[in-house]
Amino acid sequence: MNPIDWKIRNGYLNPALPIVLGGDFSGIVVGVGASVTSFVPGDEVYGSAFMLKNGSGSFAEYCVTDISNIAIKPKNADHLEAAALPLAGVSALEALTETMHISKGFKLLIHGGAGGIGHYAIQIAKNLGATVATTINSKDTDFVRDLGATVVIDYKKEKFEERISRYDGVLDTVGGDVYKRSFSVLRKGAVIVSMVAKPDENLMQQYDVRSVLQFTQITSERLQKLSALVDRNIIRIHIDKVYPLNQVDEALSYLQNGSPEGKVVIKIR
Predict the structure, then answer these.
(1) Who contacts 129 (Cβ-Cβ below 8 Å, separation ≥6)?
(2) Residues 179-214: tens digit of each pLDDT
(3) How far apart are CA 156 and CA 260, in angstroms?
(4) Domains in the chain and their CATH numbers?
(5) Chain mean pLDDT for the chain
(6) Would you report the helix, strand and coil content of the chain in percent, each value rounded to 5?
């Protein structure tokens, strides 16, 4: 499950109804189109069946999607774990490796390091040689330290801009005032990648910082790279709670209001 799921439930985007919610999934191929040669029935795959990207929605026993949205699932992950990967994992991978181009010595601030995107981003960044700072709720301190965060900041008790400075990049999953305040901790020429905030041109000019609003694109190639990281034990998938299909509403409410560590997953069968 991802925040976009509860946002659509709450009236965001106003899609034409009826729809099936859900994008991320992991399962077994039962049929393919006549021209498909890269997958066959019986393959264990994962990816996205999001209804806004040629999919039928994944909160169901069966779903349909385009082959460009899927890949063979990681060998080291079961289906519940693989279903927790696609959007959050690709979001972290795309931001850190394709926009920020993180390498050894890079100093990165991650807002919301205990969340879905954040907990993957900490692990990927650490593997690339970055120093990772993250903002979290105090209950998540041990969790993010275990993932590899070096500087852990309780956003309820302290201001991150008083703890760090001259960083190379910020990964923002929060937006609002947090996004705006993040400019002050960056060196000139640094970059902010936000999942929620549109680039603020005035702050970009004031601080000489690049800002990008990322619209994550799940592709087979990115999923394959993600699978490799899982199979090499670089990424550990953390599932906070698993709900049955008939408790989707409760699961969405927990995802929205419960501050889960890692991911929330729906078990279909």
Answers:
(1) 102, 103, 104, 105, 106
(2) 999 999 999 999 999 999 999 999 999 999 999 999
(3) 17
(4) 3-86+219-267 (3.90.180.10), 87-213 (3.40.50.720)
(5) 97
(6) 35, 20, 45
